[in-house]
Amino acid sequence: QVQLVESGGGLVQPGGSLRLSCAASGRTASTYAMAWFRQVPGKEREFVGAISWNGGTTVYADSVKGRFTISRDNAKNRMYLQMNGLKSGDTAIYYCAADSTTTQLRVGVSVAYWGQGTQVTVSS
């Protein structure tokens, strides 16, 4: 079992930056690929990006490529999402997820583990 807890959400002005963190617990947490998704109420959950278990591979949705960066620190069992150049369209609840591969996460079906989410609001 892997437990995921997100933090770092909040209110930020357009053009600003925010860093989200996902703390993972469980004996095998560092062996999983991890990802960020986001969801606006009334819409489907959207893939943001993913990182392989050793950090060697990252993939991003086109909508965030060049603005968002995913990293992880397995010694601390944490994953991060650095968000720069934020837009109002980035407003959503951001979820951390874990599964066997980045491919599995990108598909987003039957993902093994989810966090509870953290709200990000981009507004002036």
Structure description:
This protein is mostly beta strands and 124 residues long. It contains one helix and eleven strands. The protein has one helix at 102-107; strands spanning 3-7, 10-12, 18-25, 33-39, 46-51, 58-60, 68-73, 78-83, 92-99, 113-114, 118-122. The longest helix has 6 residues, at 102-107. The N and C termini lie far apart (40 Å). The relative contact order is 0.31.
Please give a quick description of this structure.
This protein has 1 helix and 11 strands. The model has no long low-confidence stretch (mean pLDDT 95).
What is the fold's blueprint, element by element?
Elements: E1 3-7, E2 10-12, E3 18-25, E4 33-39, E5 46-51, E6 58-60, E7 68-73, E8 78-83, E9 92-99, H1 102-107, E10 113-114, E11 118-122
Parallel strand pairs: 2-11
Antiparallel strand pairs: 1-3, 3-8, 4-5, 4-9, 5-6, 7-8, 9-10, 9-11
- Figure out the total of helices: 1
What string, H for helix and E for strand, traces the elements in order? Answer: EEEEEEEEEHEE
How widely separated are the two ends? Answer: 40 Å
General shape: globular
Radius of gyration: 13 Å
- What structural class should be given to the helix and strand makeup? mainly beta
Mean pLDDT: 95
Features:
124 residues, seven-stranded mixed beta sheet, single chain, four-stranded antiparallel beta sheet, 48% strand, 1 helix, mainly beta, globular
